[in-house]
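Input chain follows. Return structure tokens only.
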Amino acid sequence: GTVNRGMALAAERDVLLLNSDTEVANDWLDRIRAAAYGDQKVASVTPFSNNATICSYPRFCQDNALPEGWPVAELDALFAKVNPGQVVDVPTGVGFCMYIRRAALNDVGLFDVEHFGKGYGEENDFCIRAHKAGWRNLHLLDTFVLHSGGVSFGDSKSPRERAAMETLRRLHPDYETRVLRFVREDPARLARTAVDAARILAPGLPVVLSVLHDRQGGTERHVRELAELLNGKAVLLVLRPLPGERVSLRMADPAEDFELAFGLDEAGYEDLLTALRAFGVAHVHYHHLLGHGERIGRLAARLGVSYDFTAHDFYAICPQISLTDHTNGYCGELGVTQCTECLARSPAPDGLNIVTWRQQSAEFLDGARYVISPSRDALVRLAHLVPGAPLRLVPHTDIDPAQRLPAPNPPRLEAPRRLKVAVIGALSTIKGADVLEEVALLARRQQAPVEFHLIGYAYRSLRTQPQAHLTVHGRYDDRDLPALLGWLQPDLVWFPAQWPETYSYTLSACLQGGWPIVAPNLGAFQERLEGRGWTWVRPWNDAAPDWLAFFEDIRSRNFATCQSPAPQIPVARSDAHFAEPQRSRDWYATDYLAGLPAHAPAGGGPERAMLAEHLPTPEESLATGARGAALSALVRLRALPVLAPIARRIPLRWQTRVKTWLRR
């Protein structure tokens, strides 16, 4: 009733609903009013905001932080410059900032206080009634208002929200269908993308194109962390493969929603080059070519810019990526004959033989400005392929070299408690899932005082308690891993990897947490664990009985007595010609960026028509993670015959965001 009383006090004037938790700038109200009078039948106008569901920016239907480095006034001015006077029709306005014309109020009536309570649903009901009476509800694309969100009515929430939604359903049965259709079509996406493009160009910084595969994991995390490290010094774009010989161009920051999609036929490839020139790409950094065709490998040459290569695995040497064979273990790198037999079982892309594969890789790496490896082990293997390449040993940036890592200090293990061994991650065969299960089964059969806990999951369902001394705790977020380890309190962490990993972010987390560690004598583990107490490096291919005997031995010899084993002795090196590891954060901020120009974007930036032509389909956005994994389904909507066909066609995350909004 309060809003109605306010609207009635000035019966001749238009109305502006504006939350107390908003921030406005520039001539925002003039633009909103101009849109309201741009057509005789406009009932409501809602601008963009960071927290406005179907009017949200940068990510659609999400609550966003204000883009870093963009004060409200500057961001609003950019919207005004990029999308002047543009509007799209929406099924309803959003009440955080909604302009209502008096003529519409006179025609449709005030808010329905009989059916709706405080702060929920009444503006939606008004917009629906206005639409049915022939009026338009507009989303204004040239104005941005900051909305902190969630404080307008204190702690009054769920019961009122649910009651309002049920009332809307009863009074307007087609409302949800119209909202879901709008979400599916997303007519404001081009406007958001155009602002994204302008934000990429605005700082005048060097633009680096990072080429990735389409998988999640350490490679993706490294690029994300690199973008954070270089924030304010460079802009990182990411190119990833899409199904159907297409590629996705995005910003490296996962909080951004910018995305374009290009085919790799002749016309699509030329459009991609045009777009990259328009963004002023000054350098290409190849992090992975898995899933990409040879045209992507030629991007730097076609753009006339330098390129780097980082070895996140061994794809340049081994088409199987991990130097593993059909046994899912390290192959030993025994020579061309072994590789030929391996490729007969699992062919390389395009059917290339191992000699041609490595020749092409060597030519590509020899042309790089830098060939970067996060570990000495991987660098030595690359040196055999390209001894003359500009090799650089640069650890990833997750651990600050100045950070003093805590020394392990486990408590005494009192009898009869079992030794608690944690294994972490998404375990494939080469990550040791089968080895873990085999040792845990043997521990159960022998009633050994050792138990295993998988923080994560495996590529298949592993046998657990009571069949094995194994508990699987399920998926986790990387940010939660320290807390999960603190909750579980394992005696040590075991890495049962069957291939020579090039880094291991999981190992970093354990080093930062000060946990005792058991690791294989493969890959980066040895060099990263040199000289560390409460650490064991074991033969990677030990059989299950050997592993179990080892765990039982250290339980009694070390953990029951609080006696640390001797620190790991540094391995003998035949690679003294390599420089010492670079201080990664300093190196990326200096050497890496040195000489990279802030290219003037061709034509002043990408044309709007080009952006419109290359907006991705919803399915492509979902495939690249732009919408993320589903939070939950709209179960009720999907169960309704009239709504199920629409609901099935909308990515689940969108449905969840709309569901949250519809309850407000």
